[in-house]
């Protein structure tokens, strides 16, 4: 829980010890085996996952292909915000790519806590705004920028990708062929 506390303090330094203790009571820790789903395609997202160890990826299955849309490493939040907020089934899966430990924010328990604490409500809003801002930045980058700029962005925000993620997953994430990825990677 120390990593989560540091993460929250980084993004919301105002959290009081009392509210941190209240928040800890609604969190659970779960371990996932490599290949296990944190969230399945079509499933209603009921949680926000803080990755303690390991990593996972968001993957769409489209016309027989796996399309990777994100990687989540230690000290990052993973969720499907649209499914969580709108109550619709997830259009993608979140899969553990290594043995993984996550601290789980259960939606119902968290929302109930939000109703009792304006400070925790503000913290939750700030954390989700950060997740949304990153998603918007990625969407814009992937819509308008070159493969080289997408690669540079990926390395900047998640340098561990190159060491831990199979190249075919990285190529899918960047929307390029494996050959193009190899050329870009060798040029850096």
What does this 3D model show about the protein?
The chain is α+β, with helices and mostly antiparallel strands. It has a domain at 2-111: Jelly Rolls, CATH 2.60.120.10. Helices cover 50% and strands 23% of the residues. The chain has nine helices and eight strands. The strands form two sheets. A four-stranded antiparallel beta sheet has the order 1-8-3-6. α4 (107-116) crosses α5 (118-144) and α8 packs across α9. The chain is globular and about 55 Å long. The mean pLDDT is 92. This is cAMP-binding domain of CRP or a regulatory subunit of cAMP-dependent protein kinases. GO terms for molecular function: kinase activity.
Helix-strand layout with pairing:
Layout: H1 2-11, H2 17-24, E1 27-32, E2 37-39, E3 47-53, E4 56-62, E5 65-72, E6 77-78, H3 81-86, E7 93-96, E8 100-106, H4 107-116, H5 118-144, H6 147-157, H7 161-164, H8 167-174, H9 178-187
Antiparallel strand pairs: 1-8, 2-7, 3-6, 3-8, 4-5, 4-7
Question: Summarize this, please?
Answer:
The protein is an alpha+beta fold and 188 residues long. It has 9 helices and 8 strands.
